[in-house]
Amino acid sequence: MEITNKVANSKLITINLEDYYLEGQRVIFDIKDWLFNNQVLKEKEFREHVKSHDWSQFKNKYVALTCSTEAIIPGWAYILITIELAPFAKKIAVGSLEDLETILYAETIHSTDFSDLKNGMLIIKGCSKKPVPPNAYLLLSQKLQPIAKSIMYGEACSSVPLYKKK
Predict the structure, then answer these.
(1) Could you tell me if 86 and 61 are in contact, meaning their C-beta atoms sit under 8 angstroms apart?
(2) What is the pLDDT of residues 103-142, one digit of tens each?
(3) Interatomic CA distance for residues 105 and 132, integer angstroms
(4) CA end-to-end span of the chain, whole Å?
(5) Closest CA to 101 of 130, 77, 127, 72
(6) What letters, b where the CB count within 10 A reaches 16 and e where it falls short, cover 3-35?
(7) DSSP letter string, 125-160
(8) Residue 75 and residue 42: Cα distance in Å, rounded?
């Protein structure tokens, strides 16, 4: 009796979000040290910090701008930093590294043409070695639902059905 690998012979298409991971170093830039008592943004001093900082150290990096204290930071402060940082960084976002990663995945998923998967039986792979934020799975499922015949989550041998076209 011959053993048949039903998974290998199935029409299931696995989509691994790791394949859409943008390579490059991710860093957090915390502005708390540029605040008076780590709490108050004084415009003149803040502008001096931004102007005199060596932004070239962020060349080809993905940067998350944050303030790790409870300070209230005006919106223009992050924009001012971004203007100086933009010539060096690959991408800049306000928030955590997960926020940054979510933005990177959102842009990648949005710009990817999945039309070749039309009417496909799709599995969104669940395990990953790279940092895939939870929102990336949601964004991908929203992009795939209008074109997929079915969407599952996990591995081909143990997937969870999520969507089936009616």
Answers:
(1) no
(2) 999 999 999 999 999 999 999 998 888 889 999 999 999 9
(3) 8
(4) 38
(5) 130
(6) eeeeeeeeebeebebeebbeeeebeebebeebb
(7) E---SS---HHHHHHHHHHHTTT-SEEEEEETTEEE
(8) 14
Counting every residue written for the chain, the total comes to 166
In this prediction the pTM is 0.86
Q: Specify which residues 163 forms β-bridges with.
A: 151
> Where would I find the beta strands (DSSP E) of the chain?
12-15, 26-30, 62-66, 91-94, 121-125, 150-155, 158-164
Tell me how far apart the alpha carbons of residues 102 and 108 are, in angstroms, rounded to a whole number. Answer: 10
- CA dist 158 and 160 (Å) reads 7
SS3 22: coil
Tokens (6 digits) for 20: 């859409």
Pairing of strands 150-155, 121-125: parallel
